[in-house]
Amino acid sequence: MKRTLTLILFLSLFATVSAQDGATLHFMRMNPYSTNYNPSTFIPYRYYVGMIGIGNVNVAASNTGFHYNTLFGKNAGSPITTIYLNDFVNHLARKGNTLNTSVALSLVDFGFTTKKIRFAFSYKVRFDENFLYNQDLFAFPVYGNMHFAGEENAAHPDLYVGLNAYHEIGLGMQTELTPRLYLGVKPKLLFGLANVRVKDASATIITDPDDYSMSLCYNLDASAMCAIPYSIDSAFNGEFNPGSFKAADAFKNVGAALDLGLTYRINDQFGIAASLLDLGFIRWKTNGNRFQSALQDAGTYYNDGSFLFSGLSTEDVERIINDPESFKEELLTYFPLHHEGVDHYTTALNGRFMVEGYANVGQCHRFSALFQGRIVHNKFLPSFTVAWNGNFWKVLDVCATYTMAKKSYANIGLGLGVNMAVVQLYIATDNILSFINSKSIQRSLLNTPNANVQLGLVFNWGKLQEKELRARQAAKN
Fold first, then answer.
1. What is the pTM of this model?
2. Using an 8 Å Cβ cutoff, are 456 and 436 in contact?
3. Short-list 158, 147, 61, CA closest to 104
4. What is the longest distance spanned by two Cα atoms in the chain?
5. DSSP string, 22-47
6. Radius of gyration for the chain, computed over Cα atoms and rounded to the nearest angstrom
7. Which of 249, 263, 378, 471 could crosslink 182 through cysteines, CB 3.0-4.6 Å?
8. How far apart are CA 477 and CA 473, in angstroms?
């Protein structure tokens, strides 16, 4: 057990920690939704039913770049808020800045335990957005082109966007492989609602240090699918046509995923667990469009295959003043996009893994250490959490956590569950500080790298004590 916890701690301290996923609810042992993070997690109830639509509501966001304190401030003696763009850019990482959001809403949930297997059924709607960008995306317009003079000092702005909206049907199963080893699996059927993926949006901008002219080479490869019919053109002008939508369209983009978990009870005090989550894909087939860059080598502002801008001539200025629309149309011809319909493509979910060690102290207290990570657009995003969970009088389920992530070392999580007969109300967050600010909650949320909340109402009954499991194990031995 010591070796396991030491390994988890070593990985957490020496990995380049760069993101956080919600986990506080996972440590709340009286909550049936803790199995969302490991389908082999023990639940102390024979039966549970989530309240329709509000059994589990999960909203989360992580942000490593846009912070209130680096964007806004006040000059001494001035009541006017000032935007400090240079400070904002200076606080960005050279690469790998992220802005991620996710929403999960459980519509139907229930579970029950038979003699050997626990079953769980869930139907939920999910939304996941990932935006990754580098420092040059904002440094170039803020610092100006002279900051990037010379070929060896070119600006290389780039970004990645991945957006998935889908609904999910899952069937979880949990069983004992041995008296101490528990296996949980949850195959899931997915139905895509909308997808946007920008696989490549990058550019190279070179400023000539002699005449300050700028040359631009860029690449764009973006695709979109949606269950609701829509129309869009190469200028990204579009509109939805909900009148043409049929209920069957919401089930045409089919995918599959799997959650897998293992828990090993070393003895009554110690245990280890691991899980792989959201290993899957969606095959998109409805209302597809793709946009690709098609830079051409023709016209006044082209030179050797690059867009070249060396300033506006007198004639250009006159045209802008006298006929701005025609100049705008001409300028747009220099950045053409190849637009085509797409029959299908496949996207993968952002799967993740979790490794955990825990220690029970008495009947009420558990201490845990958790290392987790996921991969987004070839970027490894890990985090590390330590937690305490206390169960009191079969009524209160209390949890406190600390999570470490890149540029985010002040994540104090709290969770509270209250059982009233067969009704359990609960709320949990991985960063209570994101909601605490002496001036306004809006400023606090804009200033925090991570914010999330999970809450809901669930009915559970048929209390199953862990001592019953130990008794069964003793009988088998």
1. 0.83
2. no
3. 61
4. 94
5. --GGGG-TT-GGGGGT-TT---SEEE
6. 27
7. 263
8. 6
Q: Tokens 């920690």 — which residue?
A: 17
Handedness of CA 77, 78, 79, 81 (dihedral sign): negative
SS3 call for 78: coil
Q: Is residue 307 scored above 70 in pLDDT?
A: no
Please report, as a single letter, which amino acid is at residue 357: G
Compute the distance between CA of residue 177 and CA of residue 262 in angstroms, rounded to an integer: 10
Question: Are 221 and 198 within 8 A, CB to CB?
Answer: yes
- In order of start, what are the domains of the chain with their CATH numbers? 2-294+336-476 (2.40.160.40)
Place of tokens 């939704």: 33
> Checking DSSP bridges between strand 365-376 and strand 379-392, what pairing results, if any?
antiparallel
| Amino acid, res. 199 | K
What is the per-residue pLDDT across 64-106, written as a single tens digit (0 to 9) for each? 887 777 777 766 655 556 778 888 888 888 988 888 899 999 9
Per the CB < 8 A criterion, the answer to whether 98 and 132 are in contact is: yes
Q: Is 459 exposed, middle or buried (0-12, 13-18, 19+ CB in 10 A)?
A: middle
Q: How far apart are CA 238 and CA 60, in angstroms?
A: 29
Query: Rounded to whole angstroms, how far apart are CA atoms 432 and 451?
Result: 8
User: What residues are paired with 102 via a beta bridge?
Assistant: 60, 128
DSSP designation for 155: B
Are 30 and 464 spatial neighbours (Cβ–Cβ below 8 Å)? Answer: no
In this model, does residue 306 exceed pLDDT 70?
Answer: no
In this predicted model, what pLDDT tens digit does every residue of 218-251 receive, in sequence order? 888 999 999 988 887 766 677 778 778 888 989 9
Percent of all residues in the chain with a pLDDT value above 70, rounded to a whole number: 82
